[in-house]
């Protein structure tokens, strides 16, 4: 089995971590940076700091959860769950209103039943 160098381990860790945070692998480093333990460690530390700052606010903790990260903060768990419930309820209300409007339109546009047509013909 191949042993990886410290730089290769840092490259792999940084690339994976960057993708976890931003959704894509890093592309803007120079060859010199990419092969520097100091630079890679600094970038990894920067990602940790970004997530720490993001997790310091209720909105940031919700964003972290949406990004797939977990926190050990009970308050964050509750806030995230409440936000998800609110979003689901709002979506269900929008769908219910759309269904109601569709039913009204269908009733208005539907051809008359035989009994309704008979009444119309009698007038």
Structural description of this entry:
The protein is an all-alpha fold and about 120 residues long. The chain has one domain. The chain has 6 helices and no strands. Helix 1 packs parallel to helix 3. The chain is elongated and about 90 Å long. It starts with 5 loop residues before the first helix and ends with a helix. About 5% of the residues are buried. The model has no long low-confidence stretch (mean pLDDT about 90).
Layout of strands and helices, then pairs:
Layout: H1 6-22, H2 31-34, H3 37-54, H4 58-66, H5 74-109, H6 114-122
Secondary-structure element pattern, one letter each: HHHHHH
- Percent helix range: over 70%
Number of helical stretches of at least 4 residues: 6
- Average pLDDT reading: 89
- In angstroms, what is the radius of gyration? 28 Å
Shape: elongated
Roughly what fraction of the amino acids lie in strands?
under 5%
- What number of structural domains do the residues give? 1
| Main beta-sheet annotation | none
How far apart lie the N and C ends?
A: 92 Å
Structural class: mainly alpha
Instruction: List unreliable stretches of 5+ residues.
Output: none
Please report the total strand number as a whole number.
Answer: 0
Sum up the structure in keywords.
mainly alpha; 123 residues; elongated; single chain
Concise structural overview:
The chain is mainly alpha-helical and 123 residues long. It contains 6 helices and no strands.
């Amino acid at each position: 089995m191949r042993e990886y160098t410290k730089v290769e381990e840092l490259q792999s860790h940084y690339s994976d971590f960057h993708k976890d945070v931003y959704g894509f692998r890093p592309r803007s480093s120079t060859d010199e940076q990419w092969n520097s333990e100091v630079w890679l460690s600094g970038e990894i530390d920067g990602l940790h700091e970004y997530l720490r700052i993001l997790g310091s606010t209720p909105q940031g903790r919700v964003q972290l959860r949406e990004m797939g990260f977990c926190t050990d903060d009970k308050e964050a768990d509750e806030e995230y769950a409440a936000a998800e419930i609110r979003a689901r309820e709002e979506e269900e209300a929008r769908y219910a209103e759309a269904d109601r409007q569709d039913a009204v339109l269908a009733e208005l546009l539907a051809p008359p039943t035989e009994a309704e047509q008979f009444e119309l013909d009698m007038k």
